[in-house]
Amino acid sequence: xxxxxxxxxxxxxxxxxxxxxxxxxxxxxxxxxxxxxxxxxxxxxxxxxxxxxxxxxxxxxxxxxxxxxxxxxxxxxxxxxxxxxxxxxxxxxxxxxxxxxxxxxxxxxxxxxxxxxxxxxxxxxxx
Length: 127
What we know:
By secondary structure, the protein is an alpha+beta fold. It has helices spanning 27-37, 39-62, 72-77, and strands at residues 67-71, 87-90, 96-100, 103-107, 112-117. Strands 1-5-4-3-2 form a five-stranded antiparallel beta sheet. The radius of gyration is 25 Å and the shape is rod-shaped.
């Protein structure tokens, strides 16, 4: 039998005992290693999620009745980011609603937007 190769923990470097395919000395080191490995991706995803949640809160705050019109200036004033939405719905007439989860908006003329809630407007209800 050959000599067993000693391996160190990928996170802290201490000698690993146990299974031959083991890479970490503890769950703590495994989690810390993977958190470091995925930090950039996780940060990006958290930032996008925070923007989407903020957009949803703004739409929810401005659309208390389930369907309302609002000017783009009002959305901008509250910090709405038009570059982020979770889905789109295109009507038979070609109108495109953008949604932040269940809260949606449709660009109208002269910087006005129709705010809707998915399921509360026949036009804005995906099928």
